# Entry
Amino acid sequence: MAIRKFEVTAVTGTATATAYSPYLSGYIESIEYVKDGSIPYADGVDFTITSEATGESILALTDQNASVVKRPRAATHSVAGVAAVYASGGTAVNDRIALSRDRVKVAIAQGGNGKSGKFIITVDDGR
# Structure
C-alpha cells in the first residue's frame, strides 16, 4: 500500500472556481479543505467534488466556514444492482471510491471574489 497526497488550490473569480487534481489512480482515502490564512473563501462556501471522467460524486459540502477533513464513501450494490445494506432494511454498506487515470474536479460556489483555498486529496494507490 502506498499513500499519496495531491494538492489542489482553487482561486475564485466572481465567487466561483473550478480546479483539477493531477491524473491519479487508486482509492480516495480522504479530502481535506485547508482554509487560506490570508484570503480565505467567504463563510458559507459550497464545494462539489467529482470525478472528471465520469462525473461521479465524491463529496458535496455546503455552507463551510472552517478547515475540515472528510473521508467520503460510496454506496455499494449486490450483483443484482440492489443496494447492499446491513441486515434487513438496515444501514447502507459503503466502500471507498476508486478512480483510474482520472482527475478530481473541485467546483467552488459562493466563495467570494478573488479568494483562495487548498484541497488535499489522499489516495491509496495499492502499490
User: Anything to note?
Assistant: The chain has no helices and eleven strands.
